[in-house]
Amino acid sequence: MSAVAAPAAVVLPAPRPSIDDDGVSVLPGLFVPEASQWLSTSTGRIAPDGYSWLQAVHWVAGSGLYEPRRYRSHGPRSFGPSTVRVAQELAALAPCRPGVAYLVRRTGLAERTVEYHLGMLREAGLLAYIVRGTRVSGGPAQASEFARMIPVEFDVTLGIRTVQRDEDAPAYTRAASGIAEAGRDLMAKLAKKAARKVRKPRSKTSSKAPANSMRGTRQGAVAAVSGKGRCTPKQGDTSASSTAGATSFPPESKLARGASKSPIPKKSKAKAGGRRKLNAIGRRFQLARELTQELDWLRGCAVSRIAWVARGVADAGWTVTEIKGWLHFRGEVAHVRRASGLLATLLAGAETILDTPHKRAAAVEQWRGEQEAARRHRIQQVRARTERYEGTWDTPASRAVRREIEAAFVQVRDAANGRHQNEVADSQDTGLEPSEQELAELRAAAAGELMRGETTLVRSMDPEMALRIFGEHLVRRATQIEDGSRSSLMTYGHR
Fold it and tell me: Which of 42, 53, 330, 461 pairs as cysteine with 466 (C-beta 3.0–4.6 A)?
């Protein structure tokens, strides 16, 4: 690992204890602030290799001198096995330039968790920045390069003596030259921990795999040894000296024809129809899904929200048909702004009012009867409209419209009798010709009928008279409506 020269002189640590010391020092705590997490400002020394560095990592993990929650309110609570796992991956890198994505892939931890443990290793004095990574917009992220460091507290606690071989080199390049007798036993224990691989804890499912594999191995051994018989006593051993030969079969009189060999039949786990029976939550979601499919104004609503709104009727055993009957009983809606809130309002108290299946069935029958009556009424309306178009014309209900139509008929008759233009002008002066206000009302009435798909008022007059009274636009619109009414693909009407 390359060393980076320090721009300023670094103060050397305190003198080490002598080799004849009987004990090790007790330190109050271990924490490196952010300003001292760089190689140039670190008070520790560079680890000669990954193995020696892992000894310091295990010492920090077991000493309890570094507590993460003492310096921050979030993140891991302790310097534990996950931190050691991250350190093991760092110890194998040369140079130590890991990416967060690489550590996530190698350790199986979350990205944020890896970032927490890297910060803990820096705060404990075990890592120091050589080059800090950067993130440039639009470009790839650059990983940070670290120096694996051994804290001064580790040397002080174990009584490790260090020496600076090159006086011009930075202080972090000093090397270990000896250790106190009191620290040798602890160093040996740390060496065993550093050599042992800390792995990810097994899950509950993976912990069952060795038992299954061992079971298969034992069964295979039995099959290989007992070549004559395939039965093994219930309490027998699976060793080579099997007592399978002394096992006697039950008499044939105790075996019923077609019955299984086991005296206690196993209960089938399969449900009727090949599907499991839904519980209360599953029933709510099933009913909510059917409601969003059957009711147009519930389309697009979240199934989970509708399941919560309809939980009362779902637990009471209501069906979609019964809910539709109840909603018809409460009243139809034309404009819906918030479908789930409207459904909650309409279903309020439904399970208490229709509390029996008989009441719900009666409500459904009433709803279906009203639907059938409404269907017949629409058929009668269509028939009446068709007969009106094909038969004689009905007089409008408005008196003003009738007067205007009668005046128009008078003018048509007079024109058919051959009266001169002067007489027509005289008749206009006498009031037979409609005024501008009456023409405007007549045109408004005709426009209203055309909007409803009716052309009675326009077609009741002569084409020339209708064109002069109603104008070219209304006459052309009436022609279009009549042409469309003859097609089976179009329907005219109003809500």
Answer: 461
CB 47 within 8 A of CB 173: no
The two tokens of residue 320 are 């979609």
Please tell me the number of Cα atoms within 13 Å of 116 on its side-chain side: 21
Host H or E run for residue 130: strand 127-131
Contact by Cβ (8 Å): 99, 143: yes
Q: Which domain holds residue 477?
A: 395-485
Whether residue 79 contacts residue 66, with contact meaning beta carbons closer than 8 Å, is answered with: yes
Q: Which amino acid is at 215?
A: R
d(CA 38, CA 36): 5
Q: What is the pLDDT of residue 160?
A: 92
Domain match, 88 and 151 both? yes
Task: Specify whether 295 is located in the same domain as 422.
Answer: no
Distance from CA of residue 124 to its chain's centroid?
39
Query: Is 266 part of any domain?
Result: no
* Three-class DSSP category at 66: coil
In the chain, the number of structural domains is 3
- Positive or negative, the Cα torsion across 92, 97, 102, 107? positive
Q: Which residues pair with 162 in a beta bridge?
A: 176
Please give, one letter per residue, the 3-state secondary structure of 356-386. CHHHHHHHHHHHHHHHHHHHHHHHHHHHHHH
For residues 76 and 145, membership in a common domain is answered with: yes
Tell me, yes or no, whether 50 and 167 share the same domain.
yes
Whether 73 and 191 share a structural domain? yes
Statement: the pTM of the whole predicted model exceeds 0.90:
no
Output the DSSP codes for 421-433.
HHHHHHHHHTT-S
